[in-house]
Amino acid sequence: MIAAQHLVIAPVIIPFIAGALTLLYDERQRRAKLGVSLVSTVLLLVVSIELMSRTKGAGLTGQGGEIAFYLLGDWTAPFGITLVLDRLAAMMLMLVALLAIPALIYSAAGWHKQGQHFHALFQFLLMGLNGAFLTGDLFNLFVFFEVLLAASYGLVLHGSGQVRVRNGLHYIAINLAASLLFLIGVSMIYGVTGTLNMAHLSKLVALLPESELPLFRTGAALLGLAFLVKAGIWPLSFWLPGTYMAASAPAAAMFAMMTKVGIYVILRLSMLTFGVAAGPSAGFGAEVLVAAGIATVIFGVLGTLASQGLGRMTAYQVLVSSGTLLTVIGLALMGGGEKMLGGALFYLVSSTLATGALFLLIEPMSRGEGGIAAILALTADAYGLDQPEDDGAPEMGLAIPATLTVLGLSFAACLLVLAGLPPLSGFIGKVAILSGLLHNPALPPMLGWGFLALLVFAGFATLIGLVRIGIQTFWAAEGPPPKVLALEFAPVLMLIAMICLMTLKGQDTLRYMEDTAQSLLNPAIYANGVLTAPSVEEEAARQEEGTAQ
Amino acid sequence: MELILSAAIGVLSASGIWLLLRPRTFQVIIGLALLSYAVNLFIFSMGRLTVGVPPIMPKGGFVDPTRYADPLPQALVLTAIVISFATTALFLVVMMASRGMTGTDHVDGKDKD
């Protein structure tokens, strides 16, 4: 069946068409734009569910990780451009769609009126994200990265204002420089190995002669650096809190996903090229990832404790989550095993949803002119920052009763996930990581216990930081409670419902994640799968043969 | 030729990096442009340096690959040029907006006191 095959490319095509469609409408026809955008994201969710259920099959190579392909122009790998759908990619596609729908609904409450072409940029961002998750080719990865970055430059500036433009300037400059590093890395790898196909690359790494290894590793390190900038690793992350805080709420919620793209690529490439099968290069960069990841967690924790506003705090929480994941990737390269990596993937999904929800909560929570606004003004004075611009509350729509209760409960749920406290999913993720780590004899026990102490400390500091904000907003608030629209609450509640669902179905989710981790740790599944993917012509010929017999 | 090309890449990236670290937005954008030239040359050189050979092979029969240039880096460099041109243009717009809003061309939006 033709349609079923082409579904793999749908996550790229759907937002592309939707984004182009919204450009046709005038800025005044926001309802139409919103409609197109919503239809596209819901379609994306449906497609991603279907794709995910496909990857859950029994497995091509008997290892539990079936892979689907899409050969563009019907050229077989490694010559053509390939889209590859494996468990990890399917999971990330689903996460993007799950985060995009609430962010879009939230923007309907007023944000999408604050500037031009919000929906088009949003759709192109989704296209870039989905493309980056699906591509099986390094240069295509660059192209999709540029698509998502170009859209994110627009989104960061959405709503305009001095603070956004200044932070946007830094953000764009950093990312342009990182893109150049990306190109240097890609071309060096091509110069050494002669291929850009990730699967082919993972086959070739083990066969590289000794004399070529330094050049290859330099290329890989430069490439990794470009993604680490995006993931916000410690010495390269000073742009992140300012930018994320300045971005409008729905954009910031999507940006919670953007650091995860960096992490996804680091995970994918390091497992493919420096996994167990890489021979002399196995485990390259693992120590750096672990050390820098731990430094990132510490930096994020200190930032959380030091910041006075919820926006900045959430941005630092993004860093904590990035640092944790990078450390785990480093540990996995050292031989951490699938239990730990599976737990990390679980943690990735739950922390992305929670930071996304928190970014959406910031605005309703600080609207009441309560403690936060005053403190923010004070800190802004102390640091000589400009007063954040008042973006004007949305004026129409249904306000909900019992605002403070619902706000408080949603905030508490996010807090529990980020601090890693039971009963919500953050706890499950952290426990899965740590139990995998501590029960693994391949790693030195000191490292495991050290990481355990760090995670517990990070959770504790998060708790202190967020609870402080919570007390100021919900208990020490003066005056009437803020007026919050149902349209602003619904997305937050959706995200929290997803977190709860993940928690309730923890066993199944974790099993999926562990299978994903297992297929990641066996790069041969991916590599053999891609390289033997038959073109449509070959497939047709084989089928004809079959019917002839 | 190797010497000239590598010297060109080196000089371009050195001046690019120096300019990138300067405090004025105009210097930053020129720095980024120079760096992207350096990177484009670098990508190009990764297909090995050859003079006067075509990148497109004839169809069919035996082909001696040493008599042809590698077409892939040429295709890559084309994409890279287009993308870096577009993003630099976008950066220019943001730079102008920042200049208009803050009244200064300092990257932090204000001059040091």
What is this structure, in a nutshell?
The complex is a heterodimer of chains A (549) and B (113). Helix content of chain A is 73%, strand content 1%. Chain A is built from 22 helices and two strands.
Indicate the topology.
The complex is a heterodimer of chains A (549) and B (113).
Chain A lengths: L1 H5 L3 H15 L5 H26 L12 E4 L10 E4 L1 H22 L9 H17 L3 H19 L5 H32 L4 H8 L7 H19 L8 H7 L2 H26 L11 H21 L3 H24 L4 H29 L4 H12 L20 H17 L5 H14 L6 H31 L10 H19 L1 H16 L1 H9 L4 H13 L1
Helix pairs in contact in A: 2-3, 2-5, 3-4, 3-5, 4-5, 4-11, 4-14, 4-19, 5-6, 5-11, 6-7, 7-9, 7-10, 8-11, 8-21, 9-11, 10-13, 11-13, 11-14, 12-13, 12-18, 13-14, 13-18, 14-16, 14-17, 14-19, 14-20, 16-18, 16-19, 17-18
Chain B lengths: L1 H19 L4 H21 L25 H32 L11
Strand share of the residues of chain A? under 5%
Radius of gyration of chain A (CA) equals 23 Å
**Helical proportion of chain A?**
over 70%
Largest sheet of chain A: 2 strands, antiparallel
Instruction: Output mean pLDDT of chain A.
Output: 83
Poorly predicted tracts of residues of chain A: 58-65, 369-396
- Which secondary-structure class do the elements of chain B indicate? mainly alpha
Oligomeric state as shown = heterodimer
Mean pLDDT of chain B: 87
Strand count, sense and barrel status of the largest sheet of chain B are:
none
Uncertain spans of chain B: none
What is the distance, rounded to the nearest whole angstrom, between the alpha carbons of the first and last residues of chain A?
Answer: 22 Å
Please write the string of helix (H) and strand (E) elements of chain A. Answer: HHHEEHHHHHHHHHHHHHHHHHHH
